[in-house]
Amino acid sequence: MKSVSLFLAAASFAYTSAFTLPSNNNGGRTVVSLDMASAIVFGTSTGSTETIADYLKESLPEVEGPFDVETIEGSVKDFFEKYDSLIVGTPTWNTGSDTERSGTGWDEIYYGEMQEMNMQGKKVAVFGLGDQSSYAENYADASGELHDVFEALGCVMMGYTSQEGYEHEDSKAIRGDKFCGLLCDEVNQEDLSAERAEAWVAQLKAEGFFEGGSAAPAAAASPVVEVVAEPVLEFLEENSALLDEAIESHGNVGFAPHYNQKTKSTMWVSRDGRSCYYTGGSVATKASSSSP
Ligand SMILES: Cc1cc2nc3c(=O)[nH]c(=O)nc-3n(C[C@H](O)[C@H](O)[C@H](O)COP(=O)(O)O)c2cc1C
Fold first, then answer.
1. Which of 89, 141, 248, 282 is the most exposed place for a label (fewest CB within 10 A)?
2. Where in this chain does the record put each Flavodoxin-like domain (predicted)?
């Protein structure tokens, strides 16, 4: 009875997420849901990365910051852990080095204080600055390091972008065939930065970056329904079929995992942030046998 009840709770949540497309439009203006805490944090030596952070903030007034990483007071761990999603930015300096390439306060905390943080499942998007002409072989390398530090802490990395429109030859910020975030070049393509930042914010919203931070625990903790009557079983059957259809139509491709430590379950969210399903833990959903 209990497992059927749990399945019902999960299935009805998954059904809602998968088939009720959340509308973020408010009279034509896209707004960010405030059900999760987000912040912009950057490092900078000469101010260009802060310029991009300011562009991002213009499109994201609801998000906290931008904060210069060097001005964080007290515990770095406490500071970062209070956010559900983070937009983090860095320039690239120190061309000859393998690590600590930002030339900013990030380098001081990457392999020290940040390693103490519990960041599992938090959404993180990286933006980076560089000079693609003078440093064509190393364009915005340090963005790759920033990306990897957060990824290694268990964060869900989002906001990858195309390399088209840049003239670099190589970069340590490339993952697959994409940049691991938004890259800007205030030296050679200053006039493109504002529109690149705006387009990237739209991409993050479409990816669901600002949504669903607290949705998984709430769904897992749904009250147990004690009575499983005939109509309920029909409902279950119907929605299980719909879930299967949704998973099939997405081909299990492009879903990003969000692990919930409390429930030991994983919420798989589609790239557009409009569909999700669960695997593992106590939330035994129909989807678990079709995980990607
Ligand atoms: C000494 C020096 C080294 C640099 N190394 C790189 C590099 O390896 N890769 C790159 O893309 N840009 C490099 N740059 C360019 C900076 O990353 C770029 O000017 C950036 O906009 C600086 O950002 P900030 O003003 O936020 O510090 C370098 C610049 C200087 C002066």
1. 248
2. 38-205
